[in-house]
Amino acid sequence: PYYFGTYSAACIPAKVLLKLLGGSQSRAFPLTNIASWIAALLVTFFFLKRSRRTVLITLLLLMCAPIFPYYFWPSAEMFLYALVTCGAVFLVNQQFKLSALFISVAGTLNATVMAFGFFVIILFVYQSVVVFKKVHDRFRPVIFVKENVKRTLLLAACYIPFVVVAIFNTVEYGGPVPQ
């Protein structure tokens, strides 16, 4: 019960492809790992809203990260790394909902990632307050809540994958994190 079935589900397309091509289906794990790593690099390249120089340096750092030797490992580490990388890219861009969604899915694999999810919430609230103060002469909590309730509920909805897994683990294993 350490990992929910998220990684296994992500491996199904590679398993089906290998079956159709007559390849060994045991290679679905490394194929999924490499595909998720490449996807994280592509997300960084195409979506990170920074100078091209910063994006290229970030890509080099991601490519040199010590995660790569895990590509052959039939476990979720590389997949988890890719999800957190995408979450970080979208957080840097202040795309809080996308960041929260990637982090929430990563949290279905390892609940400790949700510390990052909490950080996303803190930055979301901070950015919301900054924007509110630019528009209004003073901070009015009731107006602030009214103006941000929809955005906040949409952000909260992005955490549903983790919440569903936490509820499942509580029912099945007696606690939200069975580790």
Describe, in plain words, how this protein is organized in 3D.
This protein has helices spanning about 5-20, 30-45, 50-65, 75-90, 95-105, 115-135, 140-155, 160-175. It is mostly helical. The chain is globular, with a radius of gyration of 19 Å.
Keywords:
single chain; about 180 residues; mainly alpha; 8 helices
Low-pLDDT stretches are none
Main pleated sheet: none
Q: What is the count of DSSP helices, taking H or I runs of 4+ residues? A: 8
Q: List how many beta strands DSSP finds.
A: 0
What structural category characterises the helix and strand content? mainly alpha
Q: Could you give the distance between the termini?
A: 7 Å
Task: Write down the overall geometry.
Answer: globular
Output the helix-strand order: HHHHHHHH
Strand content: under 5%
What is the quaternary state of this protein?
A: single chain
Mean pLDDT: 94
Helix share bin = over 70%
Instruction: Please tell me how large the radius of gyration is.
Output: 19 Å
Question: What's the topology here?
Answer:
Elements: H1 6-21, H2 28-47, H3 52-64, H4 77-92, H5 96-107, H6 114-135, H7 141-157, H8 160-173
Helix pairs in contact: 1-2, 2-4, 4-5, 5-6, 5-7, 5-8
Q: Summary?
A:
This protein has helices at residues 6-21, 28-47, 52-64, 77-92, 96-107, 114-135, 141-157, 160-173. The chain is mainly α and 179 residues long.
